[in-house]
Amino acid sequence: MTNLDEKLARRQRAIEGKPFGPGSATEHEGKTMSGAQAIIASLEAEGVDTIFGYPGGQAIKIYDALYDSKKIRHVLARHEQGATHMADGYARATGKVGVVLVTSGPGATNTVTGIATAFMDSVPLVVITGQVTRGVIGTDAFQESDIVGITMPVVKHSFLLQSCDDLTRTFREAFYIASTGRPGPVLIDIPSDLSGSQMVFHYPDSISIPSYKPTYKGNAKQVRQAANLIESAKRPLIYAGGGIVSSHACAELTQLAEHMRIPVVTSLMGKGAMRCSNPLNLGPVGMHGSKYANMAVTECDLLIAVGARFSDRVTGKVSEFAPHAKIIHIDIDPAEIGKIIDPAVPIVGDAKVVLGAICDRLAKDGAAPIDQEWEKTVYSWRDRWPFYAADFADYPDKIAPEIVLSKLSDKLDPEASIVTTEVGQHQMWAHQNIHREHARTFISSGGLGTMGFGFPAAIGAQIGCPEDQVVCIAGDGSFQMNSQEMATAAINRVPLKVVIIDNRALGMVHQWQSLFYDHRFSFTELDANPDFVKLADAYGWQAMRIEHPDQVDEALDTMLASDGPFLLDVIIPTEQTVYPMVAPGAALDDIIGALDVTLGGVRVSEKGFGSTPSPFANKEDE
């Protein structure tokens, strides 16, 4: 994990519009060179140390210039989608801007899923695509695609370069836009004739875009209103999203929570925003969140949403979401405020700055929690409804994925490890059972839910953070989406580990078919899976398969001790379901399959508190 001070310094440079690297203070400044050489020089001026990509005809000049760079490492993926996910994982793990370089036509279109994934999760990328020459754009030339038009809905901004006079300014603007405000992907499409044109290289050391001015400081009146609501709340709750991670606001989040003894629930993107070991952190909320976290949302009288967008996977039935609560919504993107939920206090601003201002206001007011009843009650719910219990088993003679991931969590060093996930049941089991102590150490596709993301993202994370142990949690379906990137890991000596939770099915859809479609398993059973151990061997990986609970500890130890890439194929029952669960369209307190230790550790399907009435029922909200 990159040093926090370094990340904060990079954040400040972004806000000020300065390059992340030496800018104009490079050996290239003032020299005559080709457009392709100027592209590489611009990346060096931004301090880029790694590019993920795949060459082709319209990018060949750029690749030829890259051949001479002594500062930039190029990672050759086996598919452009894999390259884009690698850059995404690199960006999420390091806090830097991920960079992708591909050719035109299919090379460019193969990046679209990766760009959309980054866009939905607010990840800073700069994607550079080669394009046909300016004179034939629009004629359906060989390997031409309108990648600017195709990606328009899923980029923060895009450029079609028209002149070398605009080249260096375009790159400075691209990195500035990608990394400031709400981060996101920016695309630069470069006609190949410009790559061969001559120009004099001058890199701008600052940038100002009059039409683009992100708001960092929250409105003072609204900050005071938020502080007043917090001071008077009896049952406050913080809903922390990925914006906490993006803005490096973890310290401010923890300060607010501990000062006012406010429990915290987290979205998938917000995992790691607060230490899992902090008792106030209730963890995952929503469709596969804990019963106690969902009940906290249902019963709170004040919900403070920070850097979160009220995804349907969190809210459930919107009309019954946080029914007793006034809502404070803090987000740097004004388009998110009021989009799903109308807040009592909307604050447009950066999470770090706004939370810091609220903490200062509370300290100035001498604010303190009203009482400890709420905190104690929430903790009692956590004791009653744990995610999983070691003495419970849905299938006693089979491997329980919850146990595998809990054991893995215990074996990983929380100070020096990163976990990525693919998408599906295994993703939710990982979210529930793998504890994280730091931001940027749990990487998963949230908004788009991209199968095939987690494995290449793990490669990018490992390359960006070579001192950390990186483990990808995958499903047998998701892993096959980009399994060709095993070659990328092997040839680049990337020692990441992959745990396949293998149920021979598209598990999450299979589960929905079981619960809601009368067991009509329409094309979700993967009977013809490859032998993953043999596949790993073909790519030069170490591998092992386990099928019995007694094998779990030894297998995990062997995997983590290996010095190269390792695949562990964990066989679980096809019928295994991920619980608890809120059915699509149901309210958060309508929970299926939560464990209840007061009933001897059995799964229950009850609305609300089951046999225990809400301790806050019939009380007036104040």
Explain what this protein looks like in three dimensions.
This protein is α/β, with parallel strands linked by helices. Helix 10 (about 220-230) crosses helix 15 (about 350-365). Residues about 605-610 have low confidence and may be disordered.
Principal-axis shape: globular
SS element count, helices: 24
Quote the beta fraction: 15-25%
Major beta sheet summary: 6 strands, parallel
Q: What structural class do you assign from the helix and strand content?
A: alpha/beta
What helical percentage do the residues reach? 25-40%
What attributes characterize this protein structure?
622 residues; alpha/beta; six-stranded parallel β-sheet
List strands and helices in order, with pairings.
Layout: H1 4-16, E1 32-34, H2 35-45, E2 50-54, H3 60-66, E3 73-76, H4 80-94, E4 98-102, H5 106-109, H6 112-120, E5 125-131, H7 147-151, E6 157-160, H8 167-179, E7 185-191, H9 192-196, E8 198-200, H10 220-232, E9 236-240, H11 242-246, H12 250-260, E10 264-266, E11 281-284, H13 291-299, E12 302-306, H14 312-315, E13 326-331, E14 345-348, H15 351-365, H16 373-384, H17 401-411, E15 417-421, H18 425-433, E16 442-443, H19 454-464, E17 469-475, H20 476-479, H21 486-491, E18 497-502, H22 507-516, H23 532-538, E19 542-546, H24 552-561, E20 566-571, E21 581-582, E22 590-596, E23 602-607
Parallel strand pairs: 2-3, 2-4, 4-5, 5-7, 6-7, 9-10, 9-12, 10-11, 12-13, 13-14, 15-16, 15-17, 17-18, 18-20, 19-20
Antiparallel strand pairs: 1-8, 21-22, 22-23
Helix pairs in contact: 2-3, 2-8, 4-6, 4-19, 10-15, 12-15, 13-16, 17-18, 17-24
